[in-house]
Each structure stands twice: as C-alpha cells, then as structure tokens.
C-alpha cells in the first residue's frame, strides 16, 4: 500500500565546481540526482546509489532551498536504508523531517518513532500525544483525511493495532470516504507493513 514504484528515464551525472553555479545549473543537477536515484532504485544498483550520494553531498552545500534539501535528505535516507545502513538512514530521515514545521504531524510521528527506537519512553509519549492533539485540533475545525490517517498511526504507536482499528471504524461511520474504506479493507496489510518497519528499526510500541 505504501510501497513506491521507481521509474527512471535516463542517467546523467554532473560534477561541477561549487562556485559560480546559477539556478539553471542547480536545476540540471537536481534533475541528474533524480535520474541517478531512480535508476538505483529500479536496478537496486549500489553504484548508482553511491553516485547519488556524491551528487546529493554537493547539492546540500550549494542549494539553499529548504524544500529541495528535504528531498535530498529523503533520497539519502532511502539509499542508506536500501544499503542496510540504518543509523545513517535514520539520521538523514531526521534531517529531512526537521525541515518541516514544528507542528507538522509527519515530523511529530517521526520524532515519536525516533525516541521509541532510542527507548526514551517519556519523549516518545510526549511526541505521540502531541501528534494526536495536533490532529484533533485540525479535525475539530473540519475533517481532513491526512490528519485522520496521522492520528491512526499515532494511536497505533501508542496503543497498538486493535485500538487504531477501533478509531478507524469510528471514522468510517462519520466519514465513509474511499480512502478510509480502502484502508479498512487493507488493514491486515497496513499492520503487517508497519510491524515490519518497526521491527527493522528495532522499535517497540508503547502498549
């Protein structure tokens, strides 16, 4: 459900001088990084991954856009994860989410998982509860599926899949949307994938 298919069109790797790069140069470099990264994913090619890492290193030093840096860190996190280098994957994922606003649920959920992985129960509880509070505040104003899904994930981390499913069933009664119906139908797969993700990161939920 959450897996991504990576489709690559071409491969170009540009190595340039750090000084004198204009916006068009950066755009070409970003396009090159996209191509190298996607090629690495499609072929599971460690050489492409290493080239993508080299290019992302350069772009992180040359590009000042917060949104672009988030993308570079996300690519790096996926690459390190694919290479089995979990500490570096987590570090780059953290750099990526820290470019988001402080009350962004994706940032809060990541920090919840980070502290669960570090066995820091107090900090994990704080960020899980903050995630739920932020989602509730938004949902009280108007229904937002992104906030609803994020709250389901936070409840899963705090209370386990049974209570997360109870909340999903409650949501479905009030908002029987196609997305929620799909999540309900694929619930066992959603739980399996989340359990595998937490196992890979050596995370135990709070329940």
List keywords for this structure.
10 helices; mainly alpha; 207 residues; disordered N terminus; single chain
Write a structural description:
This protein has 207 residues and is mainly alpha-helical. Helices cover 73% and strands 0% of the residues. It has helices at 23-43, 46-62, 66-82, 86-97, 105-117, 121-141, 145-159, 161-174, 178-185, 187-200. Helix 5 packs antiparallel against helix 6 (121-141). The longest helix has 21 residues, at 23-43. It is globular. It starts with 22 loop residues before the first helix and ends in a 7-residue tail after the last helix.
Reconstruct the topology from this structure:
Elements: H1 23-43, H2 46-62, H3 66-82, H4 86-97, H5 105-117, H6 121-141, H7 145-159, H8 161-174, H9 178-185, H10 187-200
Helix pairs in contact: 1-2, 2-3, 3-4, 4-5, 5-6, 5-7, 6-7, 7-8
Concise overview:
The protein is mostly helical and 207 residues long. 73% of the residues lie in helices and 0% in strands.
Spans where pLDDT lies below 50 across 5 or more residues: 1-21
- Name the beta content range: under 5%
Number of strands: 0
Question: Largest sheet at a glance?
Answer: none
| Count of alpha and pi helical runs | 10
Please estimate the helix content: over 70%
What structural class results from the helix and strand content? mainly alpha
H-E order: HHHHHHHHHH
Q: Overall 3D geometry?
A: globular
**Span between N and C termini?**
25 Å
Let me know the average pLDDT.
85
Radius of gyration: 19 Å
């Amino acid at each position: 459900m959450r897996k991504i298919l990576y489709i690559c069109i071409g491969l170009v790797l540009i190595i340039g001088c750090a000084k004198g790069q204009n916006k068009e140069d950066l755009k070409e470099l970003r396009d090159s990084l996209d191509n190298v990264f996607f090629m690495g994913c499609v072929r599971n090619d460690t050489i492409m991954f290493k080239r993508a890492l080299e290019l992302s290193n350069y772009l992180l030093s040359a590009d000042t856009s917060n949104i672009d840096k988030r993308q570079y860190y996300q690519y790096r996190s996926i690459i390190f994860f694919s290479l089995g280098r979990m500490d570096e994957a987590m570090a780059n994922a953290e750099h990526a989410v820290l470019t988001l606003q402080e009350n962004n649920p994706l940032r809060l959920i990541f920090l919840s998982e980070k502290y669960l992985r570090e066995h820091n129960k107090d900090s994990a509880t704080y960020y899980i509860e903050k995630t739920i509070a932020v989602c509730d505040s938004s949902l009280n104003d108007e229904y937002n599926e992104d906030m609803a899904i994020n709250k389901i994930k936070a409840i899963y981390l705090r209370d386990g899949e049974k209570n997360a499913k109870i909340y999903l069933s409650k949501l479905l009664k009030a908002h029987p949307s196609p997305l929620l119906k799909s999540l309900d139908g694929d619930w066992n797969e959603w739980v399996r994938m989340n359990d595998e993700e937490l196992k890979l990161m050596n995370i135990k939920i709070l329940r």
